Amino acid sequence: MIELGAALFEVAPPFSNLRCSLLARLMAPASSKATAAQQDVAKDDSPQHCEFIEMQTKDDQQNVMTQSSSRRQSTASIDTEASSRLTARFHRNVKRISTKFFRPFKPLDVWIQTRMRRSRFYGWRMGILIGVCSSAFVLSCNILAVAVITSIATENRGPILEIMSGSATSISRWSTALHLVINVFSSLLLAASNYTTQVLCSPTRADLDAAHQKGTWLDVGLLGIRNFRYLPRGRVVLALLLSVSSIPLHLFYNAAVFEVTKFPPTLYKIYAIDAKSDICAFLYSSPEVETFWDDTWLDIYSKAHLSHYGHLYLAIDRFAFGSTSEPEANATSILSRDYVPSDVRALSSEISPINSSPWIDYTNFYPKTVSTNTWPRKARVAQAFAVIIKAQSQLQLSRDFMIVVICFDFLRLIIMLWVLVTDRSDYLVTLGDAVASYLRQPEPMTEGKCMLDKAGHRFILGERTDLGPDVDNHDDFHKRLDGIWAPRKLQCSMLLPEDRQHIFVILFILVLGATTTLPIFMRDWIYEGGGQVSNSINGGVIYNVWLANTPQVLMSFCYLVVNNICTCMASIEEWNGFAHTRKALRVSRPLGEQRETYFLQLPYRYAVPSMLVSIGLHWLLSQAFFLQRVDYVQGDGYPHVLSQCLFTY
């Protein structure tokens, strides 16, 4: 039948009607009966009905394809539903296991929550309590460390206490570990003082009402200097004391522990040897001797003090017997005599090159029993051998610096305790506190102005308002002034004033410029504070301490600026969240379904990583800029101290 249908396609046009009707019957399923419409089409041999049959055939094919695709989609949906059921089952099992595991601790959790709600330490007070505990812990550790090191110190030089001594590698590792602990402690103190400062800078409802009466506004949930002009003097003084006390903490804390390198007396001798002798070959193969093939030894031994090297051996291969005479090629006849070694203690006056740096003045090497007329005037140094001196390293603690740190830490602890115990003010530290306050007690001055935003209120107060070049912003602004609601999503940078944005850009440029230019211009940056060892810290050491720890202060300032910027962005994010998600207000003291909070405005998912990054950066700075002392004995026989501010890159 299929062949017949195919043959009918090739017949002449007069048989086209019959072809259409037969083709419709052949294409129909054999097991199914023709419908009434198909029978009517078969009886009618018009070309219009033939076209209808062809279109119906195409529709049947499309229906088959649609059914197959829907079948595949249903299969995929079944697979998706099965996977979702497995996922839901997995989550139920995890929840069941966690419930069984934490079930014994549920009464304890309920007891803790109940006690905290009944306690006076709720909301921001709990945050200050945590800051007080961390500050007290750091203060106790500092006092205990000074007491223990003072009692067990093997070498006591007044305010300088020796912690331990050993090889340079082990001392360097211990110094790195101690500085990491110091930076963790300093970051905890900085976070606690920053938290308390933000609480003290937060306004109360009375402060807001007084500011509104004066036609101005205050920041809520942000750490801003602008609020200082409208807050009580006592709170401003406490906030400034907490902020200023961070400066000496970062200046002296990292410098309290430092490495000391001790070198033996630098009394050295200079020996002249034959460049072809066995002594020269022995020195070349010795691991305790460093070989110089150029005139580098000249710069090293010309310094006022010598630390890493001792005796110097000069390998001579040629001589000159006059200022203009030709050098003598055979040096063995001269060096084989008993005129060497020569005892020369100060090389800076003996080294005098004639034509090139390898030539030295040899007149000081001759013994008194030999005439100066037969002794060479110049000698050429083929190579030099310097004996390496192994120094002993120590880890020392400055008791004076630790006393400064302890005093300022104690001051911060007293201020935080004073705020925690005596302050009964209801600070509006979060946006939820402000919203809840105005819901309980509306303000008459803002009645009928609920459509206005910050820019609108500033415009009414007569302040300058910058809406930008966007035309839509101007239209929405005028709609809100007319009392029409114009919804929009606030940008995260809206709460950042222009001055803070400029400060952030300037800090970014300064930090970027410093990190790129310091390795170029500060390769040999060393400030020497010499002199004999005394029981007091001299001005050179203080200068180097400030020089090495100034980047720590700048890093703390950058941390506060970045923290303030992140706080502004978190405030905008929280405010936008109320527009599309049903949330209870996050307040200091909850009522009903309100949520209690211990952080102010920056959530823990932002605050904890930023603190960890701050700890890491402070530690890297302590390893890049650091104070180092070198103890050495010069030719006068007295011990000397070299204080250095070193920079590594």
Structure, explained:
This protein is α+β, with helices and mostly antiparallel strands and 649 residues long. It folds into 4 domains: 2-87; 119-260 and 395-451 and 486-647, no CATH class; 264-390, no CATH class; 453-485, no CATH class. Helices cover 53% and strands 12% of the residues. The chain has 20 helices and 14 strands. It has helices at residues 2-8, 16-27, 36-43, 47-102, 106-118, 124-152, 168-201, 205-213, 233-244, 246-252, 278-285, 296-301, 332-335, 399-422, 431-440, 454-460, 471-481, 498-521, 539-580, 604-624; strands at 156-157, 160-166, 257-262, 270-274, 289-292, 309-320, 327-328, 359-361, 378-388, 392-398, 586-587, 595-596, 625-633, 639-647. The strands form 3 sheets. A 6-stranded mixed sheet has the order 1-2-10-3-13-14, sandwiched between helices. Strands 4, 5, 6, 7, 8 and 9 form a 6-stranded mixed sheet that branches. It has a two-stranded parallel ribbon with strand order 11-12. It is elongated, with a radius of gyration of 43 Å. The model is unreliable at 1-55, 324-357, 366-375 and 520-539 (pLDDT under 50).
Question: Can you give me a brief rundown of this structure?
Answer:
Helices cover 53% and strands 12% of the residues. The protein has 649 residues and is α+β, with helices and mostly antiparallel strands. A hairpin with a 2-residue loop joins strand 1 and strand 2.
Characteristic key phrases:
649 residues; alpha+beta; 4 domains; six-stranded mixed beta sheet; 53% helix; elongated; disordered N terminus
